Structures are given as structure tokens and as C-alpha cells.
Amino acid sequence: MPFLRQFRAAPNLLTLMRLFIIPFLVIEILDGHYRISFALFILAGISDALDGVLARWLSQKTTLGQYLDPIADKLLLSTLFVVLTHVGMIPQYVTVLVFSRDVGILLISTLLYVTNTMRDFRPSLFGKMNTLVQILALLAVLCQKIFVSPQLATVSQALVRAIAVLAPVSAAQYAWIVFRRMNSPPAQTVV
Fold first, then answer.
1. Separation of first and last alpha carbons in the chain
2. Cα 61 to Cα 52: distance, rounded to the nearest angstrom
3. Half-sphere exposure (CA, 13 Å, Cβ side) for 113?
4. Residues 80, 108: one domain?
5. 55 and 100: one domain?
6. Are residues 83 and 95 in the same domain?
7. Which range marks the domain in which residue 118 is found?
8. pLDDT tens for residues 36-87?
9. Does residue 189 belong to any structural domain of this protein?
10. Are 96 and 108 contained in the same domain?
């Protein structure tokens, strides 16, 4: 599919919508409109789930979508961590750990990709767990502003602390995977 036509594929339009939501989500949080920001975050999550389903269902998997979808996901989560830290809802150290992990993985994977050293960067188990806990923590933090509850505050704090553990652990797992792959003998081809 030609590059410009890939923008018109339904899954990619949903991904672009998710990117379009991000500035409005930030504005609503900064203005203290937590119900609207929660609704926008849920809408972004639904669009993320739907773009994958539509890509398979409509056979519209595109090269653009392979790159754009994870970029949109990371941009959404990273932006939320920054803005929620700015308004005092997430501790600074957690956001620093999240960003350090993501920037480190991005730099290493880009370097390995550009040098043709490695091209397969599937998420690891801890990486998937880290992303899931980040999403749940962000939901809990936003919910805490809408539904005041001691139990929700406890869950929110526990999830945020879990991110502080999972971010460096998942970064270490990625480093270990890269180290193992780079030091494994090259695959033999049978002639």
C-alpha cells in the first residue's frame, strides 16, 4: 500500500485520533477537569484496542501502523506521567524512572536497528507488565480525583510504587535479552 494511502487506513486513523487527543487531555488535567480527562483517557484506550482489531479484521496492517501505534502509546503514557507529575499527582522519581527506561530502550533499539545488528524488538514479559501497571496506575490516579475513596488511594499508591520497581526491572530484562541475542552464535543455514 502506498505510504500516503496508509494514512487513510481505518486503524491508522484511530491511532492518529489518539495522538490528537493528547493535547486536549493535557489541557483538561491542567485545568482540573478530571472527569473530562478521564473520559479522554478511556477514549484513547478504546481507540488503541480498536485499531489492532480493525487492522486484523479489515486486513489493513500497514508499515505506518507498525511504527505509529507504539509511538502513540508511548507518547500518551509519557505525556500523562509528565503532566500528572507537574500537578503533583505522581511522584517525580516515578516519572524519572519511567522516562529513563523508555529513553534507554529507545536509544539502544535505534542504535541496534540502524547498525543492522538487531531488528526484532518484541516487548518482554516485564515490559508488558510494566505497561499494564502504568495504564492501571494512571487510571487509578485520575479516578482518585473523581471518586474520593481511601481504598482507591491505597490502590493508586501501590500501583505507582509497582511502576518504580517494574520500570528498572523491565529495562534490565531488555538489556539481558539484547546481551544474550548479540552474544549468541549466528544461525546456521542449511544448503
1. 34
2. 9
3. 10
4. no
5. no
6. no
7. 90-184
8. 999 999 999 999 888 888 778 887 787 777 778 888 999 999 999 999 999 9
9. no
10. yes
Is 191 inside a domain boundary? no
pLDDT tens for 98-139 read 999 988 888 887 877 777 776 666 778 898 899 999 999 999
Task: Give the three cell numbers for residue 12.
Answer: 491508522
3-state SS record for the chain: CCHHHHCCCHHHHHHHHHHHHHHHHHHHHHCCCHHHHHHHHHHHHHHHHHHHHHHHHCCCCCHHHHHHHHHHHHHHHHHHHHHHHHCCCCCHHHHHHHHHHHHHHHHHHHHHHHCCCCCCCCCCHHHHHHHHHHHHHHHHHHHHHHCCCHHHHHHHHHHHHHHHHHHHHHHHHHHHHHHHHHHCCCCCCCC
Could you tell me how many residues make up the chain? 191
* pTM of the shown model: 0.85
